[in-house]
């Protein structure tokens, strides 16, 4: 994967015969008590090595655009204006990258928490991607298309494991963080990229200690299992990972180190 352009909120890469654009929607700060031990309890003290900003965990909020010959697929969409003022930069990031939002043909959601799905609607209330044909959503989470998202309901397509989003993109069920949490494996002539949503929230600890969970995992045990399965997968040769909450641009390689894993950003 070769960097071809970048700015404060985007990084564009040539990935074999595909183009991948990392898009920064912004960030959210969370208290360290969101991290959970195997018991489900918060840590009494912040574990060594956990990166903090002003005493808080700073989570980047990233989305990824995969540009193929016939499709342009956005994986996750950020929060738009639905949460904090530190988020909602997705469309500005696309403009910075020189990407016309009308060129987006499909959206694939890893899950439907607000910092992944609400960017389907722009802050001005219009559709973020006016020419979008379908939004792929885990079948367990289809009910999200109500309220602000109701106008998109007829373009929502429920998916399950191994669903072919395109000839190059395949869904991988990774439930645990949410009922239908899904990763997407992208195949190019240069290798494979797995966009894994919220598999990792805090990279400074969860790669080295994958048993550490997140308070908002709907099922912490399943989330741990899914994390291990995906990390084993992407630790293989010619794999890259793209994470919604990895430090921007959120793309890199994973290697195994005994029982732990190591992330190296590209």
Shape: globular
**CATH superfamily membership:** Ribonuclease Z/Hydroxyacylglutathione hydrolase-like
CATH-level-2 architecture: 4-Layer Sandwich
* The level-1 CATH class: Alpha Beta
> What do we call the CATH topology?
Metallo-beta-lactamase, Chain A
Tally of DSSP helical segments: 4
As a percent range, the share of helical residues equals 10-25%
Secondary-structure element series: EEEEEEHEHEEEEEHEHEEE
Mean pLDDT: 97
Low-confidence sequence ranges: none
> How far apart are the first and last residues' alpha carbons, in Å?
8 Å
Describe this protein's structure.
A hairpin with a 2-residue loop joins strand 1 and strand 2. The mean pLDDT is 97. This protein has 266 residues and is mainly beta. The protein has helices spanning 90-96, 114-117, 203-206, 220-234; strands at 2-7, 10-15, 18-30, 35-36, 57-67, 72-75, 106-108, 134-138, 156-159, 169-173, 182-188, 191-195, 213-214, 239-242, 251-257, 260-265. The protein has a single domain, classed as Ribonuclease Z/Hydroxyacylglutathione hydrolase-like (Metallo-beta-lactamase, Chain A), CATH 3.60.15. The longest helix is centred in the last third of the chain and has 15 residues, at 220-234. Helices cover 11% and strands 34% of the residues. The protein has an 8-stranded mixed β-sheet with strand order 1-2-3-5-6-7-8-9, with helices on one face. A 6-stranded mixed β-sheet has the order 10-11-12-14-15-16.
Features:
Metallo-beta-lactamase, Chain A; 4 helices
